[in-house]
Amino acid sequence: MNRALKQKLKKAFEFPAPNRQEKARFLRTLAKPQISMRQFVFAQITYLRKRVLALSLLLLVPALMGAHHMNPNTLWILSALIPFLGLLAVTESTRSAKYGMQELEMSARFSSKSVVLAKMSILGLLDGLVICCLIPLCRSGNLSLLQTGIYLLVPYLLTVTISLWFTRRFHGREAFYGCMCAAALVSMTNFGLHILADFLYQFTYIHWWIILSVFLIGRAAREIYLTMKGTEELAWNL
Question: What is the pTM of this model?
Answer without folding.
Answer: 0.76
